[in-house]
Amino acid sequence: MTDSKKILSLTVGIPTYHGGPALVRAAESILASEGVEKFRIIVSVDGNPLKEEISKRLRELGVDVIENTVRGGQVARIKQMIALCNTDILVLTQDDIQFEPTALAKIAKTFADYPDTTMIGARVKAAPAESLFESAVEVGVRMTHYIGDRWNNENNYLLSSGRCLAFQSYMAKQMTIPEEVINSDAYLYFENKRLGGVFRSVPEAIVYNKSPQKISEHIKQSKKFEYSQAELSRYLHIDLASEYAIPKILVIQALAKEFIAHPIAAVLYMGIHFYTKFRKNTYANTKRFWDTDVTTKR
Asked: SS3 string of the chain?
């Protein structure tokens, strides 16, 4: 077991395909972290070369940039960073995330205080909305937090967002992760559970995610999660119906709370939600590669 007084070493990994200016801002926010010892950042580029000015700035910041010339998909890049990790903790995040200065320290402290914990989900909040559409998308984010915080003692896939997940590295190295998986966020949660690991949500470890600027990008994300249960049941060879059975009372409570606090955004959110539901789900035939958001990378 890990000594609770031990200072745990950290590696932060960022897979990227559309690595633009947001990637630099993400690295800068991570490097501004407080309360942690010096740590390593790895950026694993997935076959789409970074612009020279982006690559140069990252290296000036001390980031290890791995320029993979062949596209392998997000999971391939995650597995590469797991293999390269030689620290106690591996934090996986994305190329358009902003970290609060204390987020990494709170993740490390949780692992130290609860040494049986093998996987942590940070609290992913929406960056301040700049449009009514973004305000509507934020409704869904807040509802997810409300439900996740009250369901199964905060131990559920809703609180496992790939925008910021952390692992005891020994557990990450034990995981079997098919590279064809699209929803790697939830897969990692269930794989950790399959291996007997302990998941813990840390709402005090806050990172910010820019909402997509186009409804087409929002639909892609929604459809990915809509297909998640069927996809993961196939790869994990288990029935996940109970794991995906969100209590209806929590959904009603979360929605009512949003209608009271943000009525206009909540009405728009419901319109977007029902419009998305009627769109064809194309992820049933998708493996490994899918179109990531572009508007959040700028």
From this structure: CCCCCCCCCEEEEEEECCCCHHHHHHHHHHHCCCCCCCCEEEEEEECCCCCHHHHHHHHHCCCEEEEECCCCCHHHHHHHHHHHCCCCEEEEECCCEEECCCHHHHHHHHHHHCCCCCEEEEEEEECCCCCHHHHHHHHHHHHHHHHHHHCHHHCCHHHCCCCEEEEEHHHHCCCCCCCCCCCHHHHHHHHHHHCCCCEEEEEEEEEEECCCCCHHHHHHHHHHHHCHHHHHHHHHCCCCCCCCCCCHHHHHHHHHHHHHHCHHHHHHHHHHHHHHHCCCCCHHHCCCCCCCCCHHHC
pTM (2 decimals)? 0.91
Report whether pLDDT(210) > 90: no
Tokens representing 203?
A: 């709402």
Least confident of 59-63, 116-120, 208-212, 249-253: 208-212
% of the chain at pLDDT higher than 90: 76
Q: How confident is the model at residue 283 (pLDDT cuts 50, 70, 90)?
A: low
C-alpha 2, offset from chain centre = 25
Q: How far apart are CA 2 and CA 88, in angstroms?
A: 9
Q: Give mean pLDDT, residues 150-170.
A: 97
Task: Say how far apart CA 35 and CA 26 lie, in whole Å.
Answer: 18
pLDDT band at 2 (very low <50, low <70, confident <90, very high): very low
* Residue 12: φ, ψ to 5°: -115, 125
Task: Give me the domains of the chain, ranges plus CATH numbers.
Answer: 10-280 (3.90.550.10)
- Is there a contact between 54 and 20 (Cβ–Cβ < 8 Å)? yes
